[in-house]
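Lecture notes, part 5. Sequence design as translation. It can be helpful to think of inverse folding as translation between two languages: the language of shapes and the language of residues. The source text, in structure tokens, appears below.
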């Protein structure tokens, strides 16, 4: 709310003369305060307090209705921004983040420098943040929310934890209240007690959280995004805005990426270009390839097409200060040689066309078809994106169900009803039929070809189909079928299913 009203750098410029900002929502059959700024806290207001009581104490407060979706979107945006430090970023409730910086701290000059950089940058963007770095997520959570934060050495972990309230162990509120009644208000009080009586009285959750905070029990962090197979980034001394500059830089960093792919004998199938804007907003542009790539120019061309399609959504603002290129999916790469004239094989231009069109218009624009084991025509093939993702990889073999009969060039996605006249009972073709309000006279007919239903899928609902090839007086050839058989109490229906060349 403050950033929207006073700008992202309002903390640097100083808070204007404005009443306290608060959020309210319905809790316990009443409207209560759900979030407060620092000025409201200094005035003695607190979360959970009734809105009417707060207005009676300070009538000038500025209250807005809570918006959990907006809060979540803001936390997600901050998490995206934190990807510049580590790809392992996890959400912690509605107002916190876990960052696994194992192996990353030295890239920023050490843990203390990294933490100071995070807190300073977020402060410059208008957020007041407290953070801690330690050997366990539990201790970092406790020190950042109930302590002074900072970098905590392993040797000082227990000493720091002992001074904190038992609420820092992430246990239930009822358990905290029960511990406080017994005089166990600090973590140090729990550490000095026998473990067996604590487990019998308060359950094993208390001891588990205590061991996690002390680092005796592992506590994995589940990152919100999958970790890229390979990643290369470039930090810029001066922000860039133009698309030409973005593509030029993407091509340069792709060269380093392709060297790493070549060393692993792999090629990228799905690439992600991450753009970190100066004000903290992050843009992610994903492009796929129909076959494994490790050519920097072709990778850059993919993003050139993608930038054309997302041009209106990509707001450069004051520019981008960090670019990162990720390989999200990869495959084994088989090197190929051009012919003696220096020209690529016929597959390469086709793959390049598929990549460019899919990058510009979307993955589902170009479709490929694959056989499936079924005699039912509409089930015998299925479509999948031409980029060749996993949906189509299963069907590179020959079809398991084959037929020597001619099939129409165009198969309707859904059979359409046909009105047939003077059909020879019981198994003959019609002499004329009406389809899409046009009446056709049948000049020649071939059939029937009977296809039985797949009882293991259709069960008793399916009926046999008798297919006919019908050539009409105009020369057009159609594929029509009769569903069911003539009887005294049933009249079968006719359907148009395909058109021959």
């Amino acid at each position: 709310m403050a950033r929207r009203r006073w700008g992202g750098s309002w903390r640097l410029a100083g808070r204007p003369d404005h009443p306290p900002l608060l959020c309210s929502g319905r809790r316990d059959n009443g409207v209560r305060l759900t979030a407060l700024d620092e000025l409201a806290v200094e005035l003695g207001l607190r979360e959970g307090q009734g809105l009417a009581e707060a207005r009676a104490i300070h009538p000038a407060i500025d209250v807005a209705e809570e918006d959990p979706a907006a809060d979540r979107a803001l936390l997600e945006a901050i998490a995206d921004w934190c990807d510049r430090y580590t790809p392992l970023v996890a959400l912690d409730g509605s107002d916190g983040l876990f960052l696994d910086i194992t192996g990353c701290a030295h890239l920023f000059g050490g843990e203390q420098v990294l933490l100071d950089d995070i807190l300073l940058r977020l402060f410059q963007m208008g957020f007041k943040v407290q953070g801690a770095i330690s050997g366990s997520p539990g201790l970092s959570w406790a020190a950042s929310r109930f302590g002074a934060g900072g970098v905590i050495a392993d040797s000082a972990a227990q000493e720091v934890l002992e001074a904190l309230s038992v609420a820092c162990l992430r246990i239930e509120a009822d358990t905290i209240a029960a511990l406080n009644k017994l005089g166990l208000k600090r973590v140090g009080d729990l550490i000095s007690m026998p473990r067996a009586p604590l487990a019998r009285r308060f359950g094993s959750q208390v001891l588990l959280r205590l061991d996690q905070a002390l680092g005796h029990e592992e506590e994995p962090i589940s990152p919100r995004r999958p970790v890229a197979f390979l990643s290369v980034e470039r930090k810029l001394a001066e922000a860039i805005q133009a698309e030409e500059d973005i593509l030029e830089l993407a091509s340069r960093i792709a060269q380093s990426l392709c060297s790493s792919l070549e060393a692993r004998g792999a090629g990228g199938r799905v690439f992600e270009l991450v753009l970190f804007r100066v004000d903290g907003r992050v843009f992610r542009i994903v492009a796929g390839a129909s076959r494994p790539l490790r050519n920097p120019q072709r990778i850059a061309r993919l993003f050139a097409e993608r930038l054309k399609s997302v041009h209106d959504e990509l707001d450069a603002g004051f520019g981008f200060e960090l670019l990162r290129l990720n390989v999200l999916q990869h495959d084994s790469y088989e090197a190929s040689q051009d012919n003696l004239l220096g020209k690529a094989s016929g597959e390469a231009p086709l793959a390049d066309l598929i990549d460019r069109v899919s990058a510009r218009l979307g993955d589902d624009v170009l479709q490929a078809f694959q056989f499936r084991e079924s005699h039912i025509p509409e089930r015998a093939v299925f479509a999948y994106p031409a980029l060749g993702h996993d949906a189509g990889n299963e069907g590179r073999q020959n079809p398991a169900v084959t037929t020597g009969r001619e099939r129409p060039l165009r198969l309707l996605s859904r059979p359409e009803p046909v009105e047939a006249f003077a059909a020879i009972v019981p198994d003959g073709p019609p002499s004329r039929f009406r389809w899409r309000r046009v009446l056709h006279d049948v000049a020649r007919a071939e059939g029937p070809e009977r296809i039985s239903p797949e009882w293991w899928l259709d069960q008793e609902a399916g009926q046999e189909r008798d297919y006919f090839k019908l050539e009409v007086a105009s020369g057009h050839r159609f594929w029509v079928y009769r569903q069911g058989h003539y009887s005294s109490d049933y009249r079968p229906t006719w359907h148009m299913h395909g058109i021959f060349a």
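The translated text above is only one of many valid answers, since several sequences can fold into similar shapes. Residues 390-400 have pLDDT under 50 and may be disordered.
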